[in-house]
Amino acid sequence: MKAMILAAGKGTRGRPITHVVPKPMIPLLGKPVMESIIEQLRDSGFDEIVVNTSHLASVIQDYFRDGSHFGVQIAYSFEGQIVDGELQGEALGSAGGMKKIQDFSGFFDGTFVVLCGDGLADVDFREAVRFHRERGAMATIILRDVPRAEVFRYGVVATDASGKITQFQEKPPVEQAVSTKINTGIYIFEPSVFDHIPSGRLFDIGGELFPALVKLGAPLYGIELPFQWVDIGSIADYWEASRLAVSGVIRGYQLPGHEVTPGVHVGINVSWNRDRTKVRGPVLIGGSCAIGDGATIEGPSVIGAGCVIEPGALVRECILADYTRVSSVARLERLLVFGSQCILPTGEHFGIAEAGVGWVVADARARPEFAPEQEELLQLAREIAD
Amino acid sequence: MRFEEYKTGEVLVAKVLDGRIAADVAPRLKAHLAEYVSQGNHAIVLDLGAVTFIDSSGLGALVSSLKSIGKEGDLVISSAQGAVASMFKLTRMDKVFRMYATTDEAVAALSVTPVP
Q1: Minimal CB count within 10 Å: which of A25, A57, A371, B69?
Q2: ipTM
């Protein structure tokens, strides 16, 4: 069967991480979220996958290539152009992106799945496709019930007893929402849906296509299935997802490395003397890390590959990208370090160079260089740490 | 650099109105704090509630102000939040300064008459 992964978004809510990697490539315990999606599609019988790309397209394409090393076939539909030697993205929206593929080759020739590349959902696709075909649906949305206070973030639907969608509201105010059943961004379509999507222009599934289908009385259905949904759309979502993943509570999500003590997973080629450090799980320490004597790491924390945690450093509830150096005077608490930025769980952030804190946290591969006033602070911090 | 200043009892509250304390304003911050002391203020609450970014030169200016006030007085920080609170913690400067969640708490702490 065929599927499409929506991967052309700019990832605005994921900034500043998405300045460096597109949202589908955000690593959850070191593994891009989209890789888990592809594995799941493959295991559900979807082996031909087209991915629309735009923002930072090459990061996605260089990683997945033709899909053969993931056991599927992958092709890309790039939305944009090269201007003055530079790739410039020009996303067409979710439905516009689907239509571009269909206009190009007529790829979608039977029931197919479309889903976002920025969330994990262990949806039973076989069951969803069965429901979709049984109803003779043109489109089926996988639904989920959320607390009423959160409905304003999503597309909200009302269904009749058979599951047919009678109303679709895109991001309604809480008091106007017709239900608490929301669109998860996972869809099953028939090719006939393309009759309702215009060619060559920005067109959105949730904002335009579904409201139009409801208006026409087209067979648009919704199915609520029990599944675990892990969204990584925003920094706050990613923060939560990483903590859940390292805590081992995302169903079917494997923690890499060996579990050396309960809740502490460690990759290979790690330099540390376990008896001389305090590591309290859940913690993942990536391969080729160096953990100095007297360092403390408290979970939930994810220490990327090649990180250096210097002697005496404290890392408490942090997510560190590969090659992060944490100096011995540092006390890192509830921070994400990614792409030379310190990011708070709320998304608030500051650049390491801009803030002049390279003496506290830096790229492990860079030679430390400080300004005089930073030397002074370092000295003071050392006295306190001792 | 812009401040909002007021006194409650013996305590001077100085709220920084600039959003950023970086290398360009750090010397002025230091000069300002020195001026407060020379005017006879010995209990100062620096309210950072409106500040969204501080860099190492900003922290450096605060540290040297604290040092120059020395035993003659108190300089405490209030209302630091988000990235600013994070900067103090990250660099362990939250252990150099007495830090309070609100200005009221800071004022109350400095208003306690020292035991002779």
Answers
A1: A371
A2: 0.87
The answer, for A92 touching chain B at a CB cutoff of 8 Å, is no
CA–CA dist A96, A79 (Å, integer): 10
How many residues are present in chain B?
116
Type of residue found at B58: G
Contact between B93 and A361 under an 8 Å Cβ cutoff? The reply is no
CB contact A337 to B (< 8 Å): no
User: How far, in Å, CA of B83 to CA of A232, rounded?
Assistant: 22
- Rounded Cα–Cα distance for residues A267 and A259 (Å): 9
For the whole model, what pTM was predicted?
A: 0.86
DSSP A129: H
Structure confidence by residue, pLDDT tens digits, A236-270: 999 999 999 999 998 888 899 999 999 999 999 99
Q: Which residues contact A245 (CB under 8 A, 6 or more apart)?
A: A28, A29, A230, A253, A255, A302
Contacts of A15 (CB under 8 A, 6+ apart): A235, A347
Task: Select the residue of B55, B91, B96 nearest A354 (Cβ to Cβ).
Answer: B55
Q: Which B positions 13-32 lie with beta carbon below 8 A of chain A? A: 23
